[in-house]
């Protein structure tokens, strides 16, 4: 990893470098995705089956599109009872955390005859996309489905690509059953997003689509936004560690590598006030690389987007972290809670040397679907509210409206909307 002294110039160059990873730079694939969406929208199942044959080398029809109970039972056997129990414990932690996010409808009646309120209701149907093949992550199934289930969504469907043998990754199926998915369809890629966005003869239209995917999936979600709601356009994974001289360099190195192994575009950044720690972390990284199974991917990630930055003090480190707005932020300092109070922008914050990032990925309970590419400045982790919709409630008595009607009429007239004004005025003729 390259080691640099932190400065305004260094910071700006780093931010520019990280922005190259943005999904907004996928424009060269947009025409391909637009054509897939158009075909699925007009031809329905026929297009879905054709693209599955073309991209997944699998023959799928209306008869075998839907995953059966027998296939789920087979998946349970395949993953084994030990892993199944781990998934159940993880699911319970995720459920408990998200239940604390639930909010009730509220009404505010006043003596003047005014009643205002907000009605909270879950969306009717949620769609979850889950990648297949090597990128199959049961943990993401739990993280996407359980908040929807806690919100009270009645119908949760999942799409995931089949293998050439027509089967779905058993870990994905087992996690879906644990989380409470209603229906699982064997379709992947942009065609799956289009199918959920517009509906086909076999796949229902949903109200919201969540879940990660490749470039084509990301662009399809972007193109379908507005016809359905989406969670976000996810970029490559990233981790930022703020550490001082008290940090364990072996822990820091291990945590940086935990994200670098995701993808050649993944970003791993250490900001430290200690040059000695920086040197030791670099040495530990070199040592770990000789043993880790995904070392080629890790090495490319570190070469492209790995940095060790030397800050003058923790204030400068925090300022830079807030500018980067990383998906995952670890604070390994003498007083991590004090540093945490100064952080404004991060997807998830991990405090102390025993709160390693994979704890959040798999088990603690907070959602691991997080804003990337600096979007933590204005986006939040996936949560129960993402599966809720809110409706305003307004009720005025005649007396309450009479006190306000001239104000409303004046406002409407100043905007040139005389029919608006008249709608109020006729009630007091």
TrEMBL record:
CDD domains xrefs: Histidinol_dh
EC number in record: 1.1.1.23
UniProt: substrate binding residues: 237, 259, 262, 328, 361, 415, 420
Catalytic activity: L-histidinol + 2 NAD(+) + H2O = L-histidine + 2 NADH + 3 H(+)
GO molecular function terms attached to this record: histidinol dehydrogenase activity; NAD binding; zinc ion binding
Cofactor binding note from Swiss-Prot or TrEMBL: Binds 1 zinc ion per subunit.
Entry binding sites for Zn(2+): 259, 262, 361, 420
Gene Ontology cellular component terms for the protein in this record: cytosol
Keyword list, A-Z: Amino-acid biosynthesis, Histidine biosynthesis, Metal-binding, NAD, Oxidoreductase, Zinc
Pathway membership, UniProt: Amino-acid biosynthesis; L-histidine biosynthesis; L-histidine from 5-phospho-alpha-D-ribose 1-diphosphate: step 9/9
NCBIfam families the UniProt entry points to: hisD
The protein's name in its UniProt record: Histidinol dehydrogenase
Organism this protein belongs to: Eisenbergiella massiliensis
Source lineage: Bacteria, Bacillati, Bacillota, Clostridia, Lachnospirales
Gene: hisD
